[in-house]
Amino acid sequence: MKGNTPAKIHEFDILRAFAILILMFHHSDAYGMTLFGRPLELLNPYLEGILLGIFFFISGYFAERSIQKQNKGSVSFFVSRLVRVYPPYLLGLALFIFVLGISFKKYNLPIYLTGAQFIFAPNYAKPVVTLWYIGAILLFYFIFGILLANLRSTKPLAVASALVFAAAYALHQWTGLLDERFFKYFVVFLAGILFARPHFFSNWLSGEKPWLKLALAALATFLFSLTLDLGSTSPLYILAVVFFILAWIALTFALATKVKAPFILKLAGVISYASYFAYLIHRPLWGWLAGIFSVQSGEDLILFRLFPASLVVFILSYYLQYGYDRLLALFRRRG
C-alpha cells in the first residue's frame, strides 16, 4: 500500500488502486447478492487472492528496491518500515475497539498492540478481520529484512527463504503457531523481491506478451479452482494459489502499461496514495456512517458501503496519509 513504497511507478499505482477497490467490494457483503441468477460468493476466493496478492507482492517489490537504493542493514530497514506501518495501525486498532466494539481478553490485547497476531491467531489469540494483514506484513519485513541485508545474491536468498518456509511449515504443524495464510503470501512476497531484481523475470513484469499472460491467467484460474477444496496448507493449494496470484499480477501489470489517460493515472495515484489508511479504517468508518444515516442491512447497506461511504473513506484516508507524511517529514528535519 502507499504507505509502504519509496518510489512511484504508475503501473503499481494502478495495481494498488485496483486492489483496494476490490477490497471495498470484498468487504461490503456484496457476495450475498446474485448476478444473472448466480451467487457472487463464487468470486470470493479469486478476488481475495488477487487483491491481497497484489498488496504482498508490491510490499516485497519495494522492500527489495529500498534495500538496493539505500543499502540499509536489517535493523534500519525494519525500523523504517515500522515507522511507516505501525502508528497508522494503532489508529486502526483503536477504531476497531472503540467504534466497532471489538473486545480482547487480557492476554490478547498485547498481542495486537505489538502486531504479533499473525503469529498467534487464530489458535492462540482472537482472530480479527482486516488487522491480520498488518501482523503479516510486519513479520515478512522482519524475516526478509534479515535475509536481504545479509544475502544479496539471488541463489542464497532463495535457499534461505526455502529453509525459512520449511521451518515455518514444521512450526505450524507441530504447534499451531502462524496463520495458515503465512505460506502462500510468504512466497508471493518473495516473488515481489525477485521481480524487483534487474533482469530477473523482467519480461513478465512489463507490457510485453499480453496475450500469453492472459492465457497463463486463464490456466492459473482453472488450476486454482481445482484446489479450492484442499486445506490452506496443502502444498498443491499453495502452488496453485501462488501461480494464480502471480499470473494475474503479470496480466494486470501488462494492462496497466497501456493506460495513458492523464485523468485515470491521476485518479489511480490518488486512490493508491490513500490505500493504506483506507485499508485500516474502512470497516469502522463504514459502521459509523451507517449508524449516522440509519442504514441497517440488505442491499441498501451494501450499496451505501460501496459508494457514498467508500468515497468518504478515500477522501479522509488521503488526507490522513498526507498529514502523516508531513509529520514524518517534520520529525526527520528535527532529527
Q: Secondary-structure map with pairings?
A:
Layout: H1 10-27, E1 34-35, E2 38-39, H2 44-70, H3 74-98, H4 108-113, H5 117-120, H6 132-150, H7 154-175, H8 182-195, H9 210-226, H10 235-256, H11 262-292, H12 298-334
Antiparallel strand pairs: 1-2
Helix pairs in contact: 1-2, 1-10, 1-11, 2-6, 2-8, 2-10, 3-6, 3-11, 7-8, 8-10, 9-10, 11-12
In short:
The protein has 335 residues and is an all-alpha fold. The protein has twelve helices and two strands, in the order H-E-E-H-H-H-H-H-H-H-H-H-H-H. A hairpin with a 2-residue loop joins strand 1 and strand 2 (38-39).
What does this entry look like structurally?
The chain is mainly α and 335 residues long. The chain has one domain. The chain is built from twelve helices and two strands, in the order H-E-E-H-H-H-H-H-H-H-H-H-H-H. It has a two-stranded antiparallel sheet with strand order 1-2. A hairpin with a 2-residue loop joins strand 1 and strand 2. Helix 11 crosses helix 12. It is globular. The relative contact order is 0.15.
Please describe the structure with a list of short key phrases separated by commas or semicolons.
single chain; 2 strands; 12 helices; two-stranded antiparallel sheet; disordered N terminus
